[in-house]
TrEMBL record:
InterPro entries: HDAC_classIV, HDACs, His_deacetylse_dom, His_deacetylse_dom_sf, Ureohydrolase_dom_sf. Residues 21-290 form the Histone deacetylase domain. Keywords: Hydrolase. PANTHER family: HISTONE DEACETYLASE 12, HISTONE DEACETYLASE HDAC1-RELATED. It comes from the Bacteria. Belongs to the histone deacetylase family. This is Acetoin utilization deacetylase AcuC-like enzyme.
Amino acid sequence: MLKIAFDPIYAHPLPEGHRFPMLKYELIPQQLLHEGLITEDSLFSPEPLNEETILLTHDKVYWEQLRNLSLLPKEQRRIGFPLTHQLVEREIRIAKGTIDGCHYAFENGIAFNVAGGTHHAGSNWGEGFCMLNDQAIAANYLLNKGLAQSILIIDLDVHQGNGTAEIFEQEPRVFTFSMHGDKNFPFRKERSDLDIPLADGVSDDEFLDLVYCTVPQLIAQQKPDFIFYLSGVDVLESDKLGKLSLTKEACKERDRFVLQQCKNAGVPVQVSMGGGYSPHIRDIVEAHCNTYRVAVDIFF
């Protein structure tokens, strides 16, 4: 059974002005249920994550300032909204959902977090609406528990996974790959193990050719025993922030190819949804739902 981390708190505690793109967290499960691709049993609600696991990834002082809502105003501005206890709880539940998803992926080959992809959070900073890095936390959890020895993170969101790159800069057991807009946020990039910067306006064929060439090669070279995939749909031509020119069909083919490579290699994969900022919510939801549709076709 396809398992998906979902909690209503993912959508509701956000400040005014940030709620529109977050509607997808409610609409994606509704659409999948409507289509009959999943049942209510597919959805699970994660508990808050414990501090011990958070501190495998994030600096203690940073975490305590986040938990106590005592970050400086400039640090809150870097995150993008003022802190609240609800927002912090949202982040720790998202991170726990990604960890829970790893366990389900070991059982079923794949699992999803309807939120997640908070890849701008570094070891001691939050940025770009990201406070805790869910996939980095989950990767360190797997390493700490001896559940994985070699991890590949495939980040195909339009923005560089700068926080993920910084967290694992000195960790040889985790290979970070980010393909992203060169002139897009964050404007100060970190160094992933492999970065592929894209010019503005890159369209379907060029983007997909890079995916076709790079992903199988990385899996063959790194021989991971677990893969994290960040499947942001802000690569769409309709996206307000993306600056690329992909169609929904190409975005779906991207996901189909990546997930098929994971299945072919017999490597479990956890998928976090990442960004999507098209003006029409239906375009965001449809593109994200395509990721689930191809997963069902490939794994179930």
